[in-house]
UniProtKB/TrEMBL annotation:
CDD domains the UniProt entry points to: TM_PBP1_transp_AraH_like
Protein name, entry field: Autoinducer 2 import system permease protein LsrC
UniProt topology in membrane: Multi-pass membrane protein
Disordered: region residues: 359-428
Role summary: Part of the ABC transporter complex LsrABCD involved in autoinducer 2 (AI-2) import. Probably responsible for the translocation of the substrate across the membrane.
Comp. bias (Low complexity): 373-391, 405-428
Alphabetical keyword list: Cell inner membrane, Cell membrane, Membrane, Transmembrane, Transmembrane helix, Transport
Length: 428
């Protein structure tokens, strides 16, 4: 959101922009608006889930049984975990199409470690996770350091990682008999009647949600997705944040691969082939803007739950499996269209708010920047308008004590953090 420029002194030198308190107020209004939109999307997903359960239960009451709920949670856990990782890069205006291949590679290596080397469960878990992290590092370096578009990079690594999986497998399949029973319990066991697999996914979801909401580095991902150039000017280390986002996405994909092996027992080189559409659909249906800058991991998880529930409902309703893909694609298109409509509405609302708060300047342009109480700050000795102090009085001339892109605004928050808070869309 651009701000009006205040004219400088007689020499025509540009002075300070609008008072920082006024800018901060507009930023808070923008964050509140985007936050309301995000919460509305998540509430809509919950309502859709209840309606889907209700309609399907009318046709077949067994759909709302305990076992049915467990199956849906188990089916959602792995896709939901991948969706959480995908959200980290999608909010930065990027995408990772290699998550399915990373999962497959991690899953097969995990099974191979058990079958050929009889390693402890902890070691297999760590190795599978490390494989995902290494794949994330490769993607992160190519995107953040080499600045190659993420779509191109991850489309290529999707095939590279899958090819590595086929090379390792050589047509071999690892069966449940080759894996420890304690490991398989992770995929089939329960704690207090709740399957272990969804509990693990829920813990990781909670950690990711907390980090994106409370850590400055997490909030800065939204600022990058909203406007990468503005994020750089605000002092945000864009390249570093993108690199970490891809590494975390790869790490979560590696964990998902280990859990896949525990869930299904039988693993080969085709594991999770085509999962990319499921994950992207879950993220977008969950309200994460494909254009970046808004969305939550909770919404992405709800999107995964909705798609898994649709798949289970189609089986109960005896609908052919081919319709599941068609419905997923239709929901994806609908969600992208809705995102665009909401973005345009939010943009119009923010422009209207900016025009209402715009400052009208005198013809001679010699007055200083308006302060919080509406009074103009006194011009400095060289004719440039003085920046207001936090209490609304005239302050030092622009540049006297400026710290560059991380300078502290009048409300005490660093500029980079303020930009991140606004772009996050109120999820702070």
């Amino acid at each position: 959101m651009s701000a009006p420029i205040v004219a400088g002194g007689p020499g025509g030198t540009g002075g300070a922009g609008p008072g920082l308190p006024a800018v901060a107020e507009k930023q808070r209004s923008a964050a509140a608006l985007l936050g309301r939109l995000a919460r509305a999307r998540e509430l809509g997903l919950v309502v859709a889930l209840f309606l889907l359960f209700g309609v399907t239960a009318i046709v077949n009451p067994r759909f709302i049984g305990v076992q049915s709920f467990k199956d849906i949670l188990l089916n959602t856990a792995i896709v939901g975990l991948l969706a959480v990782g995908q959200t980290l890069v999608v909010v930065t205006r990027n995408i990772d199409l290699s998550v399915g291949s990373v999962l497959g590679l991690s899953a097969f290596v995990t099974g191979l470690l058990f079958a050929d080397h009889q390693v402890p469960i902890v070691v297999a878990f760590l190795v599978g996770t490390l494989i995902g992290a290494v794949c994330g590092v490769i993607n992160g370096v190519l995107v953040a350091v080499c600045r190659i578009p993420a779509l191109v990079v991850t489309l290529g690594t999707m095939y590279v990682f899958r090819g590595a999986d086929y090379w390792l497998a050589e047509g071999r399949q690892v069966n449940a008999a080759d894996m420890p029973s304690a490991f398989l319990k992770i995929g089939s066991g329960s704690v207090l009647g709740i399957p272990i697999l969804p509990l693990i996914a829920l813990v990781l979801l909670a950690l990711a949600a907390w980090g994106m909401r409370n850590l400055r580095s997490g909030r800065e991902l939204y600022a990058i997705g909203s406007n990468p150039d503005a994020a750089r000017l605000a002092g945000i280390p864009v390249g570093r944040r993108l690199f970490v986002a891809f590494v975390l996405t790869g790490t979560l994909s590696g964990i998902a691969g280990v859990l896949w092996a525990a869930r299904y027992g039988t693993v080969d080189a085709t594991a999770a082939t085509g999962f990319e559409l499921n994950v992207v659909a879950a993220v977008v249906v969950g309200g994460v803007a494909i254009f970046g800058g808004s969305g939550t991991v909770v919404g992405a998880a709800l999107g995964a739950l909705l798609l898994s529930t649709i798949g289970s409902a189609l089986v109960v309703l005896k609908v052919e499996a081919l319709w599941e893909r068609a419905i997923d694609g239709a929901l994806l298109l609908l969600a992208i269209t809705l995102d665009r409509v909401l973005a345009l509405r939010a943009e119009r609302a923010l422009r209207a708010s900016a025009s209402r708060g715009a400052t009208t300047l005198p013809a001679d342009g010699a007055t200083g920047t308006p302060t919080r109480d509406g009074a103009a700050a006194a011009p400095s000795s060289d004719g440039a308008a003085a920046a207001p102090s936090p209490d609304g009085a005239g302050g030092a001339p622009p540049g006297a004590g400026a710290k560059g892109p991380g300078a502290t605004p009048a409300d005490g928050a660093p500029a980079g953090e303020a930009a991140a808070d606004v772009a996050q869309g109120g999820t702070r």
